[in-house]
Amino acid sequence: MKILILGCGRVGIYLAQTLDQAGHQVTVIDRNPDSFAKLGADYGGQMVVGTGIDEDVLKKAGIEKADAFIAVTNGDNTNAMAAQIAQHIFHVPHVVARLYDPVREEIYHLLGLNTVCSTVMGAERIREMVGA
């Protein structure tokens, strides 16, 4: 699969490394070129400097041939907007946006976005671990 990842923080790095190791064609987009150093020497994918809501940056990253787009920046609004662009303008088949705010998750679902709310997932897992 050709997979674009927006955001080169902890989650983006982990996704990029594991997907690259699994044989996927991975491109990471981030506005800070220094963040790419954390991908490590074993990362064989591409890196594109820019903002993930800029259509020219997305085209440079290869969004027109992408099978999946994953938005994992530290901003809910950026992730949602980039996911909408990937889904509605470029018709990427698999689009996921990571969110922190559970209230926003409901709204983004109404917009037709697939989301992962790390706040809800983390809280639910902790609740399960303590047996509550």
Give a description of the structure.
This protein has helices at 10-21, 55-61, 76-89, 102-110, 118-129; strands spanning 2-6, 25-30, 46-49, 68-71, 94-99, 115-117. It has 132 residues and is α/β, with parallel strands linked by helices. It has one domain (2-129): NAD(P)-binding Rossmann-like Domain (Rossmann fold, 3-Layer(aba) Sandwich). Strand 4, helix 3 (76-89) and strand 5 form a beta-alpha-beta unit.
What attributes characterize this protein structure?
single chain; 132 residues; alpha/beta; Rossmann fold; six-stranded parallel beta sheet
Could you give the topology of this structure?
Layout: E1 2-6, H1 10-21, E2 25-30, E3 46-49, H2 55-61, E4 68-71, H3 76-89, E5 94-99, H4 102-110, E6 115-117, H5 118-129
Parallel strand pairs: 1-2, 1-4, 2-3, 4-5, 5-6
Task: Give a short overview.
The protein is an alpha/beta fold and 132 residues long. It contains 5 helices and 6 strands; from the N terminus they run E-H-E-E-H-E-H-E-H-E-H.
